[in-house]
Structure formats: C-alpha cells, structure tokens
Amino acid sequence: DGGITQSPKYLFRKEGQNVTLSCEQNLNHDAMYWYRQDPGQGLRLIYYSQIVNDFQKGDIAEGYSVSREKKESFPLTVTSAQKNPTAFYLCASSIRGLGVEQYFGPGTRLTVT
Amino acid sequence: KNQVEQSPQSLIILEGKNCTLQCNYTVSPFSNLRWYKQDTGRGPVSLTIMTFSENTKSNGRYTATLDADTKQSSLHITASQLSDSASYICVVSAENNNDMRFGAGTRLTVKP
C-alpha cells in the first residue's frame, strides 16, 4: 500500500454520530485525496489537498469535512449531515501535478446503522 | 461531461485462459489513461499508464492498448492466474486540470 496507512480497517457507528477516518503517508507527497467507493460505481472524489493548510471540495463534499495541518496527515470527518455514509473510503497521495499517479491506502469500511 | 465506461461489469474465466477488458471514455482534452488493479478490500494499485502517443504498453502478463481516436482502451491479461482475481479500474485524466475520472471497474474472477 505504498507508505499510506488508513485506520481503522473497519468502523461501525450509530446514525447521528460524527466519525473521523485517519490517513497518514510517509511518501513526502504534497497532494492527498479522499475518495468514496460504492458497489457498481467508480471512485468519487470527496476532498483533495494540494498543499498543507489548503484543501478543495471534490464532487461529493457535502456532509464531509477535512483538515490538512501536517503534510503527512489528511483526516476525513464524516458528519451526521451525510445522508448515506456507509461506504468504503480510500485515501490517496501523489506528487503535485496534473494526471500524476496516485498511491492508495488500504481503505476504511464504514458502516453506519 | 467527462465519463469513463468499462465492460464487462464482471467476468469469470478459467486459470490459464486469456481475457480482455474494455474502457471507453469521453474525457477531454485527454492527458493519460491508467489501469489499476484493486484486490478485494484493498486500495487500487497502478498497472500501466498510457499517454496520447502510446498505442501499447506491457507490464508482465498485462498489456494495455490505447486508441485515442476512438477513445478506447483495453487491458489484456495473458495466461491468467488465480491471483489475477480482482477489480480492474480504468482512470482517465484531463489535460487542462486535475480532473481524474474513474470507471466503475470490471470484476475478474479466475477459477481453477
């Protein structure tokens, strides 16, 4: 998984609770990304960050929040406002640039009941 | 709208057989196309990358082709192994921004 760690592997939460997913990388990459993967669909971009202390909304940012206080870390918070939070969440990192290869973490499967 | 379509959705083959996965895209202007392999419950791992001028690229038993005129790519797997069982995802990047579009993937199962 190329120096990117996500924890935990599985996460269970009750509806109405916020939950934070961890993503850490030791590849010295400037850019980091969060994706959501649902069955039968391609990965969808939630948020991305090209540099520390800066991040941008992706295609499906509603109900999610992020922070980028350190180069190595890009935590994702799934808030109670996210209507359908149960999914497989993937974090990735890359060097800065257009169309560069992204290195993915092992993912976190979040189940909200 | 930039989109990536993959076919078939799923495929079952016997060990040792060959197979070909398809990817059609409408991403424009085209920058590059990657094929990723994703094992169940894991993150995707890059197999190949192809730019506009490349027609064919191989990585071991994996061979990717690209036809930029028809906006189609294929991934051919030769002499399949049980470990090839995974989802194969086509990802196309646009040239003028950081837009990357992911296909839904083809789920390949290799049976003994």
What does it look like?
The complex is a heterodimer of chains A (113) and B (112). Chain A is an all-beta fold and 113 residues long. In chain A, 0% of the residues lie in helices and 49% in strands. In chain A, a hairpin with a 6-residue loop joins β4 and β5 (44-51). Chain A starts with a strand and ends with a strand. The model of chain A has no long low-confidence stretch (mean pLDDT 93). With 112 residues, chain B is mostly beta strands. Chain B is 0% helix and 59% strand. Chain B has strands at residues 4-7, 10-14, 19-25, 30-38, 45-51, 56-59, 62-67, 72-77, 86-94, 100-102, 106-111. In chain B, the strands form two sheets. In chain B, strands 2, 4, 5, 9, 10 and 11 form a six-stranded mixed β-sheet that branches. In chain B, 38% of the residues are buried. Chain A binds chain B through residues 1-2, 4, 35, 40-45, 48, 88, 90, 92, 98-99, 101-102, 104-107, 109, and chain B through 4, 9, 31-32, 34, 41-46, 49, 89, 93-98, 100-105.
Number of helices of chain B: 0
Q: Tally the helices of chain A: what do you get?
A: 0
Instruction: Profile the largest sheet of chain A.
Output: 7 strands, mixed
**What best-fitting shape of chain A do the alpha-carbon axes yield?**
globular
Summing up helix and strand content along with how strands pair, one would put the structural category of chain A as mainly beta
Order of helices and strands of chain A: EEEEEEEEEEE
Order of helices and strands of chain B: EEEEEEEEEEE
Largest sheet report of chain B: 6 strands, mixed
Q: Name the helicity range of chain A.
A: under 10%
Query: Rough shape of chain B?
Result: globular
C-alpha end-to-end distance of chain B: 41 Å
- Oligomer state equals heterodimer
Radius of gyration of chain B: 13 Å
Give the uncertain stretches of chain B in residue-range form.
none
Q: What is the distance, rounded to the nearest whole angstrom, between the alpha carbons of the first and last residues of chain A?
A: 29 Å
